[in-house]
Amino acid sequence: MKNIPDILSTSAALAGALSLDTLLRMLMDAAAELTGAEAGSVLLLDKSSGELVFAVATGEESASLSEIRLQPGEGIAGWVAKTAKPTLVNDVRSDDRHASNVDIKSGFTTESLLAVPMLHDGEVIGVLEAVNKRHGAFGKDDLTILSAFANLAAVAIANAQRFENLTSQNRRLREEAFGKWELVGKSRVISKLRDLIERVAVTPATVLITGESGTGKEVVAHQIHEQSQRAENVFIKVSCSAIPETLLESELFGHERGAFTGAIDRRIGRCEAAAGGTILLDEIGEITYSVQTKLLRFLQEKEFERLGSGKTLISDVRVLAATNRNLQESVKSGAFREDLYYRLNVVPIEVAPLREHTEDIPLLIEHFLGKLVEQFPHTIRKVDSEAMDFLMRYRWPGNVRELENMVERCAVISQSETITVDLLPPEIKGTSSGGEAAELLTDMTLPQAEEAIIRRALRTTRGNVSKTARMLDISRDRLRYRLKRYGIDTEEYR
User: Fold this and answer.
1) Interval 218-245 mean pLDDT
2) Is the CB of residue 454 less than 8 Å from the CB of residue 467?
């Protein structure tokens, strides 16, 4: 007879198996090993119907057993599940309870059988079986040892099921969250950005994300995290500009009780809480010089100390940083450490302003309207052509965030299914109402105005260079020169 240490050592191995499928196969093998049987099987109870279902079993055709559902009380296993009593049968052919169709399905001949209930919180959740004693016949000791093991197995199964439920829920929540941070657009600009994110995400490199306010730098950061090997772990954002500079160091690295006035307890910092995952340092250009020094050490060594403590801690975190500032200018002025800048700027990603990919505006509006349906009901389904023309001509100083706010405003005040010109904010209508002349009357420089006119013409001609040249009344060569000068790719407009 196997002793208690044998059961405990086997149970310890099972404790590390969080995959339910892996665990069930381990249980099947352990049941056979502990009792000296040729094989084992695990049946789980379907609570809704009271039927027993083969989860794992021995035999070349064992997969087909999943099609068999033993009715309450059917077969020896069914009897065990119904009565919650273990049983030992050394000649199953002489037992009226034996379900012979199971052998036919599995291709395995059952001669002797141990079947014990698996109980969790006082309820039967399944039946554990040991089949065919290798030498001699099953005895009471075998039944006792398998019954004891079944109690441990029941706990392991319940834990694995709970873990799989949590994992499934976590995956669903992550998918929903990932949808929230979707990178919307089909333009050449967005396609190139997606390609860069895919290449960067699989590496451990530190990334500096730059761009104007409202372009979607946080969306890019989430995309990098979700496509990385750290996607299963936490993503933490720190808004450096929103935290007083006197508290930022504590926010990042934590503090011990009594480290400063008001520190009534120990607090773990964001860098420590993000261990194994990703941290986004938003508006990195706002941090003070002293915090820059400690952040540089953390980036280089992954080491830090909580305020008020001399103990060095280590945290494995991928760092992403974002800013709408020109950090190179901050370096020149002495406001930002040059060594920290280069440590952050391992892989630079610049997010283009919306005015450089206005062809994505229709898709962005559709995306925002879909998100708003989840928050409050609205009837808007489309944008009429006149309003869309205004939206495509506007320069969007607030970028994608400004567009999203505009869409939400229209969804709130509209009483029809269409966004019309009268719903648009004055600044959008004012900028576009005078056509090209109105664009030239804005605060644009002459080169900016020229670029805007060329891009508008390309939108109209869908990137056709000849038609664009004729529309602007210039030669093809002069147009090509200006396209090269302003870095305009006509493929973006096809």
Assistant:
1) 91
2) no
